[in-house]
Amino acid sequence: MNEYLQSIINRDPAAKSKLGVILTYPGVKAVLFHKLPFFFCGKI
Predict the structure, then answer these.
(1) What is the pLDDT of residue 30?
(2) What pTM was computed for the model?
(3) Contact between 21 and 7 (Cβ < 8 Å)
């Protein structure tokens, strides 16, 4: 997830921080909420 967030920050001049990207980008929220259950179940 860190690499994904960093790639967005590198490509988008409006993105300043990882927290800002998480809170304002709907696509990032979709990926995050998709990966959370796998994290809690220990599949990642």
Answers:
(1) 95
(2) 0.71
(3) no
Distance CA 15, CA 37 (A): 26
The pLDDT tens digits for 17-40 are 999 999 999 999 999 999 988 888
Q: Looking at the 3D structure of the chain, how many domains does it have?
A: 1
Is residue 40 assigned to a domain? yes
Q: What is the signed CA dihedral for 18, 38, 34, 3, rounded to 10 degrees?
A: 30
* Owning domain of residue 35: 20-44
Separation of alpha carbons 14 and 34, rounded Å = 25
* pLDDT computed for residue 34 by the predictor: 92
> CA separation (Å) from 18 to 28, 29, 31, 37, 42?
10, 12, 14, 21, 24
